[in-house]
Amino acid sequence: MTAWVAREHHRFEAAGKPFVYLVPSAAIFALDDAADSVLRMLSTKPRTREELADVMTDHAALDAAIAELSRVQAIGIAAAPIPPTPKVIPLAPFPLTTMVLNVTNQCNLSCTYCYEYGEDKIVDTENGKQPKFMSEETARESVEFMLKESGANKVAHITFFGGETLLNFPVLRKTITYARQRAAEVGKDVDFSLTTNATLLKPEIIEFLAEERVGVTISIDGPKEVQDKFRVFQNGTGSYDLVAPKIKELLKRHRSRPIGARVTLTSGKMDVKRIYQHLTDEIGFWEVGFAPVTTSPNRAHAISDGGYDEMLGQFRDLAFEFLETTVAGRHHGFSNVKETLEELHKGVSKAFPCGAGLGLLGVATDGDVALCHRFAGSDSHKFGTVRDGVDRGAQQAFLEQHHIANKTDCSVCWARPLCSGGCYHEAHTRYGDTTHANLHYCNWIRGWTEVCLQVYGELSERNPAFLAQFDDEEMKELVS
After folding, report:
1. Third-level CATH fold of 3-77
2. CB under 8 Å to 415, separation ≥6 — which residues?
């Protein structure tokens, strides 16, 4: 007699209804009463249809539930072996979608927690072999590299990074002009973006960024007392009073693309909602994203286990504010939740935590190609050069080694489709090994994914049109 058993899933509730997140496929389904009852019973032990019928009197509903749950692979025959998840490695050469160009490894701030210049730095940017500023020639070579490695993609994405990116504005400006010209010659478009601390946002630079429609992300931590705690100049002076008026001028002039803020959260008292409200209501940012500081656990600014719990609680509060605002048809700029909702809606199931080493590569000031911008200049994480191209052997070896199938700690975690072990740079900084799963924030990741699943379920019932925009974005990508 056939016995049924539940397959790997995570049940959650939203809008007064049960939902299920199917881990292997990353699909989300609302459950009716019959399907919920069947899945609950089969989650405790295998049962035959007859055993289920002893409990459920509506046999037609029972049979329909079994058929539907089996179809979506939420349940399966107990005796049947569960097919192993194939270890799929992308075929080389995989097209490059985003090149992060480190036009300088120097900065005019001395942020206490900085991963690039602090105690946790990977590359010596002061006395190392790389030049402090990328030359115009290397930048042009990088553009040619990007256009070649982007393959059949019609749009190439170039992100300028640092150090403080605008310290090398002359090369940045010339690179954009050159890239637009060369892209047009080969039938492509180029999208440009950059990250800056805003200290060098002079009127002529603001005008250029607006005219060229360059996407801008500002690194800023919040109100004056928060910003000036860590984001300081070398003499210890805080940067808020300098950057706040410059940012407002940028926001006033640059209207063609949303301008976002990126906040680094550290130990001590957090007030995520206050930071968000200040940056959106008082400064004027369209969206704000938060990230916990990347650092060794013994640093004073490192977030403790209790700190991750506090951060999750504050993220949850802001996420549900996002929910109610969105249901009311208004914009809310908490980008962390929106980005996760998009991944959930598209059924993202990652073999790798991000595009680093795959569709995204970082370029150091000397033209060396690295895993990502955070490893730019590191010989241990080198993937070639802009002159010689991608070292496909090194890339393939990296992908083989870092596939989620090799992270045994992740194999039983229901949140692995979105996490896949976490950031390589975080793992390197915390454990000294990019292959290591970021076990210190597993509970945080599961908690945050649960929050986003609840918000997703609520929106699917109360404002499904909001989620439909992600279908539109997918179609835009397909036809672009």
Report:
1. Outer Surface Protein A; domain 3 (3.90.930)
2. 10, 445, 446, 449
